[in-house]
Design brief:
By secondary structure, the chain is mainly alpha-helical. Helix content is about 55%, strand content about 5%. It is built from 13 helices and 3 strands.
Length: about 270
């Protein structure tokens, strides 16, 4: 895939920020427009996939996507759809059948799991039939989530994608549901372009190299702090949260330096 410019990444993110990644695969299957595959690839590479791993998963998802589900998933309102009817037994064919037939894309699976969890925790009163109640329960973590976990293992086996990346993908898709369907506050978009990510560093202890920590404090401030001010912070003001935000790449360098000297610290992501 040709490297995307920052402007292209921003345009793709803005256009598709409220749709699930599986919908991008469905839209590509319907139209063959490259913008859908570009955003799919950008997202997976953003959360840790190599380009080869992202392309492999994209091709697999396009291949297994059923014709009967393509239009549903390609609807840009799919994220907001109800996935489970609480008056009917969901997925009555059983877990093994759906895994063997590769019934869903990962986004669809996450949406089913997420809605089962929501109903079980918040609207259990709607599950009036025992068979429906038992099936919904089986789809949740409280019922061992065998479909969800078994499906992830199938994805891992069929695509060779490491389990931790599939879990990161699933977590990111649920993040979209939290933000846009459930309107949960305080959650950053899981697929923000890299250039929009910033990190904040909090230093909690000096470790074994006070001089090095003082230098790092000054570095993070872009050398706006004097040596005297940095020494004052190191001696009397820990834990210290640097007001200057840094890029993920810079944060990783600071992480290495602070770990080397045994300092205690936290690095948290924010949005610029």
């Amino acid at each position: 895939m040709e490297a995307l410019t920052d402007e292209r990444k921003e345009a793709l993110f803005s256009e598709f920020k409220d749709i699930m990644t599986g919908s991008l695969a469905a839209l590509y299957k319907k139209t063959h427009e490259e913008k859908y595959s570009e955003e799919y690839m950008r997202r997976l590479c953003r959360i840790g996939f190599s380009e080869a791993q992202a392309k492999n998963l994209f091709l697999f998802e396009v291949m297994i996507l059923k014709e009967s589900r393509t239009d549903i998933l390609a609807d840009r309102q799919y994220l907001y759809y109800q996935a489970i009817d609480p008056t009917r037994v969901p997925l009555p064919e059983g877990d093994a059948w759906h895994i063997a037939h590769q019934s869903f894309l990962l986004s669809e699976l996450v949406k089913i799991w997420d809605e089962a969890e929501y109903i079980w925790v918040n609207r259990k009163d709607m599950l009036r039939e025992e068979t429906v109640r038992d099936r919904v329960h089986s789809l949740t973590r409280y019922g061992d989530a065998k479909l969800f976990l078994g499906y992830l293992r199938m994805y891992e086996e069929k695509t060779g994608t490491p389990a931790h990346l599939l879990h990161e993908y699933a977590k990111s898709e649920q993040g979209l549901l939290y933000i846009f369907r459930w309107l949960t506050e305080g959650i950053d978009h899981p697929y923000l372009p890299e250039e929009k990510r910033t990190m904040q560093i909090t230093i909690r202890s000096l470790g074994k190299e006070k001089v090095q920590v003082i230098r790092i404090i000054r570095e993070i401030s872009d050398w706006k702090l004097s040596l005297k001010e940095a020494v004052e912070i190191a001696d009397k003001q820990l834990p210290y949260t640097a007001p200057t935000l840094v890029s993920p790449k810079a944060a990783e360098e600071y992480r290495k330096k602070l770990e080397e000297i045994g300092a205690s610290f936290e690095i948290t992501e924010t949005v610029a």
